[in-house]
Amino acid sequence: MLALLLYRGIRGTVFRDTPAPGMTVLDKALVNVDKLLGGASPPGARLVAVMHVRKIPSMQTAKRVLGRMAKLVPRFGSIAKPGKCMDEACFMPTQITEEDLESYHLNFEHAKTLSEEEERDAVHNIAHTALDPNRPLWRMDFVSRNTGGGIVVFTVSHALADGLRLVKAAAQFCTFADGSPAELELLKRMSATKRKISSKSSLNIFNLLRQVVQDFGTALTLDQKPPEIGTEAFHKPSTLLPATTKRDLVTGRMPFAPILEIKKKLSCSVNDVILCAFLGALKSYSKQSVPGSRNSDHLLRALCAVALPDDLYRGAADLYNDFLLVSLRLPFGVENREERLKLIRELMGRAKRSLVGIIQVYLTKFLSKIGLDKLIAETQKKIFALHSFVYSNVPGFQQPIHIFEPGHEVEKIEVYYPNMVNQCIFLSYRGDLSMSLTTDTERAIRRPLDLFSHFRQEIEDWNKELIREK
After folding, report:
1. Is the per-residue pLDDT at 208 higher than 90?
2. Which residue range(s) make up the domain with 93?
3. Which range is least confidently modeled, 21-25, 235-239, 265-269, 408-412?
4. How far apart, in Å, are the Cα atoms of 456 and each of 273, 361, 367, 453, 463?
5. Cβ(458)–Cβ(334) under 8 Å?
6. I need a surface site. Which of 73, 209, 233, 352 has the fewest CB within 10 A?
């Protein structure tokens, strides 16, 4: 709550440069990401959403819906313009014509009959195909299955928006079965909660100053922390995955209900359960991969992506990035689930109160203003190199959605983001939980499907343990 209050107080000077829909400092960094992190980050900073559909939409339907969206959502119809320095980055409005949609943004060339293995290869190739920097940074590819239906691969630059805002934007081109816009109820609740906090909370200046002083030193020295130890199975300490190497994209699924059962029995959050089970899976995977490994001696860090609720001045069609990457020293190797869950809840509680992420944004803003982009880039590389994972848990729809219009039901979804280190994205959709891992199977997670098997087993064993304790 304290972080949210500070965010509210300084958003006009730190996060927003011009009237809405202005660019946040994260927007500018992501527009300039290839210049900032060239040689370290995979080019383009692309989010890849793979939607498995029962029926491939027609080109005509796609043109009609997405042509309208490009007019309604300003950033969807704008070209990202990197600046000489990060602070000069901007979006320039343009006009997407019907020819642009047919020749570039909507790709039906892959719409041919493919086997399951060929389909995976197609997704892999699409995910690693660069977006044209001289056009709005998004594209949709349509791939047909020989058994009917197929997949729609939506590739979009992270510069346009973060995951939370992109889920919100889905209402512009996805519907429910009755034709109503596919709006996520959780996002409405988050915005309502923010309005409630904004209207009722009072600011204790002494607590705020104490928190700022405490977290300022942490923010300044985050890139100086000692490297991870004993985690050879995940990440060689103080290194980044090569930017030029193609990432492996792997997804596993399991029913969401067992996770909800654990949440209900232990009165904790879904994220607490998922993160606790994920650490248990990493522990088991490490034991399997590194014989004789002593998990209790390991130090494992992850950057946890935390999206902030919508600003009150932002419109429904406003895309932007507003999230924090919180550095977490995870209780990796703790055998007892009850103890591990307790440590995670304490850790996440401290993370929610922490101002480190916001202070980092403020420092980045200041350094960008005085032209120290090189210092920003080197610091970010060091921070990423100290972490094995970027972890995020994205809320999803629990009822079926249809792409463009009713009749094109989405059966399942996975989301990937090639990053400087391993990226793990959990997403719930219509009763299932997917764990999508973007990694390098030669240098990092060599058997990603094994990791997911350990995760599923961890959830099963946890539920059995709770039943026995009744």
Report:
1. no
2. 2-468
3. 235-239
4. 12, 36, 44, 5, 11
5. no
6. 209
Q: Residue 454 corresponds to which tokens in the numbers above? A: 């350990």
Q: Is the dihedral of CA 83, 87, 89, 93 positive or negative?
A: negative
Q: Is residue 282 helix, strand or coil? A: helix
- Find all residues with CB under 8 Å of 329, minimum gap 6, and list them: 299, 300, 301, 347
Give this prediction's pTM. Answer: 0.86
Give the Å distances, CA to CA, from 194 to 12, 191, 216.
16, 5, 25
Distance (Å, whole) CA 254 – CA 3 = 34
Q: Residue length, the chain?
A: 470
Cite the DSSP H helix spans in 322-435.
337-353, 356-369, 373-385
Provide the number of structural domains found in the chain: 1
**Tell me, what CATH number does 266's domain have?**
3.30.559.30
Contacts of 243 (CB under 8 A, 6+ apart): 37, 38, 39, 40, 41, 42, 43, 420
Contacts of 58 (CB under 8 A, 6+ apart): none
